[in-house]
Amino acid sequence: MLSFAETLRSAAASIRGHGLRSGLTALGLVVGVASVIAVVAIVQGLSHRIKEGFAGLGANSLTVKSYTRFEDKLQGRENRIGTADLDELVLRLDGVRDVSPVLPVFGPFGAEVRLAGKTAHTRVFATTPVYQYTRQNFPAQGRFITEADEKHRRRVAVVGAKLLDDLDATAAPIGKFVEIGGEWFKIVGVMEERGELFGISQDDFVLMPFATGLALLPDQVEPDIGITFNVEDVEKLDEVRDRATTLLRRKHGIKAGRENDFKVETAEQLTDSFASLFDTVTFVFAAIVGISMLVGGIGVMNMMLVSVTERTREIGIRKALGAKKRDILAQFLIEAVLLTTIGGAIGIGVGYALGYGAAQLIPSFPPAVLPWWATVAAFGFSAGVGIAFGIAPAARAAALDPMAALRNE
């Protein structure tokens, strides 16, 4: 009986002896693995950037936002979190600090901004001085909104670096006046740059005092605000979340058993939601692209069947010298697995290179990220293809009658 090392050496020698045929056979598997790895690397790169974005909220933060079912939206209904909800949380929720409302003043699509003859379109939010602490984002130039700005409803603005770049106003922006939605504001600060997410700049915005933003809303428009706050004791995070949920359900008159018209989420939950979504997308795309790996497996089976036919006399000689069925089975099965794992290894390298290159070619796209589990899965699947498509040819070789094999020319 041959040792495993000798069987492996024999398999490698057989693959080298038919280099061109082996290479063409492995090519199908290389293409399949490379396609899957490229898709996984690109999608996981997006997921990694999302997680980095939410990491800035901190482990002790909670976010409250309105929630409307899709069926209700179709009927024109829209739930909201208003200033009364904010007051309820500030007055009655213990164990929290840095309560920061965020109001999209001109709706989700923002407003036109003008400065010195230049025009840009950007998102416009109204918030309070503690926003910088809940979001861990601070001014790089000038100052942030102050309590005095809030109290007196001052027309001051803190802007993102991308907006200044669009307005050609990066040189000495502090103190300049900018027109936002037809109203004039004085720039008092420029926030730290945070890069891009999904190709969308996180530095393209305007912040103004919350009271000022409320005053700009038409009388008939009911505000819909998001509220972020920090929990003083992180170990009581779930307890505070439950109390906030109870307060808002009572405030909204939601009866027992009815679904909430709002969400209270931790930064970890927000991250996990996006991570789960991207993992699902990764799996679906990988499964679709992975079909091509089956084509590679069929090619392996075809090559191994040809190899068995060509080596019939060799098999007869080995059996005549005492080789057992399991020895012949192991020899051909190891050869198939070795071929597919080599193809898988090459495919992993090519796939990551393709994913990295594609991410670099797309403007503002996050770099590709290849998780360890994808590499392990690709190796495992490649070996599985070798076993699944190599077992039939190996079994056929093991079942050959030695006398008939010896008579074969």
From TrEMBL:
Residues 22-246 form the MacB-like periplasmic core domain. One of its GO terms (molecular function) is transmembrane transporter activity. Its main location: membrane. InterPro entries: ABC3_permease_C, MacB_PCD, Macrolide_Exporter_MacB. The lineage of its organism: Bacteria, Pseudomonadati, Pseudomonadota, Gammaproteobacteria, Lysobacterales. Residues 287-401 form the ABC3 transporter permease C-terminal domain. One of its GO terms (cellular component) is plasma membrane. This is ABC transporter permease. The keyword Transmembrane applies. The chain crosses the membrane at residues 24-43, 283-308, 328-352, 372-395. It is a multi-pass membrane protein. It is found in: Cell membrane. Belongs to the ABC-4 integral membrane protein family. It comes from Tahibacter soli. It holds the Pfam family FtsX. Keywords: Cell membrane, Membrane, Transmembrane, Transmembrane helix.
